[in-house]
Amino acid sequence: DIVMTQSPDSLAVSLGERATINCKSSQSVLYSSNNKNYLAWYQQKPRQPPRLLIYWASTRESGVPDRFSGSGSGTDFALTISSLQAEDVAVYYCKQYYYPPHTFGQGTKLEI
Amino acid sequence: EVQVVESGGDLVQPGGSLRLSCVVSRFTFSIYWMSWVRQTPGRGLEWVGNISPDGGEKFYVDSVKGRFTISRDNARNSVYLQMNSLRAEDTAVYYCATDGGYLNHWGQGTLVTVSS
Predict the structure, then answer these.
(1) What is the distance between the alpha carbons of residues B10 and A100, in angstroms, rounded to a whole number?
(2) What is the CA radius of gyration of chain B?
(3) Structure confidence at residue B41 (pLDDT)
(4) What is the pLDDT along chain B (116 residues), one digit of tens a residue?
(5) A95 to B45: CB separation less than 8 angstroms, yes or no
(6) How far apart are CA A69 and CA B1, in angstroms?
(7) Which residue among A1, B36, B84, B85 is the one 20 to 30 A from A30 at the CA level?
């Protein structure tokens, strides 16, 4: 199984500052035939289901603010929030869908 | 707007069975994979398994293989999770989600508690 490891486990950032969450996969999730990274990012607020933010490592889901961006390829990825807003307080997860079983990172708790 | 609604969660004794249901509306259900994901406080999010559009392919995480079965009824826009031989560690909120590889529409979840 592909193991997804996020860092840090928790992060405190001031309003308006940049936040970066890292995600590392135990093997590459880049599919060479289509040059796509099978990696997504999710946001989960308390008492809510997860929400898709980013897929194919860097494609923003419809309706997601452009302060959220995804980067990386192969085994190393990052989710960046360019200017933290109060409503961004949440737990963030990466997930690979390269092959089953699909696996999530352990989550990163983002606080202000 | 796509709606995903899970149901069927309950308190069940260890060794017991339970069937969860998930109905999707305002969505082209029959051409999409569907996934089940569960969440416990101690273990975060865990992908349980998924099913292909025609139901012919299914994949599961090792911890539920042989005990859980995913099925679907495209005429009813529904997907199901049959859970047998339940264990305390299966206690979780179970989510259903549309699966394009990435999971873009989620339900609110249904709570399964396995306890005597």
Answers:
(1) 28
(2) 13
(3) 74
(4) 999 999 999 999 999 999 999 999 988 999 999 999 999 976 789 999 999 999 999 999 999 999 999 999 999 999 999 999 999 999 999 999 999 999 999 999 999 999 99
(5) yes
(6) 24
(7) B36
Name the pairing type of β-strands B11-12 and B110-114.
parallel
Residues of A in contact with B22 (CB under 8 A): none
Angstrom CA distances, B13 to A36, B19, B64, B114, stand at 44, 14, 17, 5
8 Å CB contact of B95 and A50 = yes
DSSP string, chain A: ---EEEE-SEEE--TTS-EEEEEEESS--EETTTTEE-EEEEEE-TTS--EEEEETTTEEPTT--TTEEEEEETTEEEEEESS--GGG-EEEEEEE-SSSSPEE---EEEE-
29-88 in chain A: CB under 8 A from chain B: 38, 40, 42, 44, 49-52, 55-56, 61
CA B101 – CA B59 distance, rounded (Å): 13
Torsion sign over Cα A106, A108, B2, B8: positive
